[in-house]
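Quiz preparation item.
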């Protein structure tokens, strides 16, 4: 393939991506890092509308809900979400270097999967991004020294952020934090 300039390259790349999206059997929606819609395939558009209609939000246009965007900022692993009203509809929100990929599924999330409830998302909104990262790793069972190593921080900083998290969420220990974010 020969391009004659940056515009030709972008058009070709856009054509390739759109072709891939339209042939994909998955319902895919791509958002930029601030949560604005970048692109979606037809199945992704219809599933996203279905998701929002069931919540009675009246939001037909695809945009990343603020609760998801805020909760996701602290994590580097995919979030699995079960629709609160439709038991057969779930979503996986994954980070990408430039934003997020939302995959909407017509299947419930399997038992034991790392799912965040609406209550957990609301709780995470009370925390700073840094505190969210620490809380999510603590809930996964990591000790303070392991969290510090993973996030390239001192154990004292992790301890301080964890205590701040406990205070903000009104919990006393790791067990209560895990129950709140379960």
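Solution:
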């Amino acid at each position: 393939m020969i391009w004659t300039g940056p515009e030709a390259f972008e058009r070709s790349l856009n054509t390739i991506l759109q072709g891939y999206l339209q042939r994909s059997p998955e319902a895919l929606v791509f958002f930029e890092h601030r949560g604005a819609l970048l692109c979606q395939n037809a199945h992704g558009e219809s599933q996203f509308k279905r998701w929002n209609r069931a919540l009675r939000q009246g939001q037909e246009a695809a945009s990343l809900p603020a609760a998801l965007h805020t909760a996701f900022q602290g994590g580097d692993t995919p979030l699995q979400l079960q629709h609160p009203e439709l038991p057969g509809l779930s979503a996986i929100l994954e980070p990408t270097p430039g934003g997020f990929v939302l995959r909407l599924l017509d299947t419930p999330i399997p038992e034991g999967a790392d799912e965040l409830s609406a209550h957990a998302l609301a709780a995470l909104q009370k925390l700073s991004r840094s505190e969210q990262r620490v809380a999510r790793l603590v809930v996964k069972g990591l000790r303070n020294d392991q969290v510090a190593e993973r996030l390239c921080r001192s154990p004292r900083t992790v301890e301080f952020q964890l205590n701040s998290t406990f205070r903000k969420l009104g919990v006393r220990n790791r067990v209560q934090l895990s129950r709140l974010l379960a």
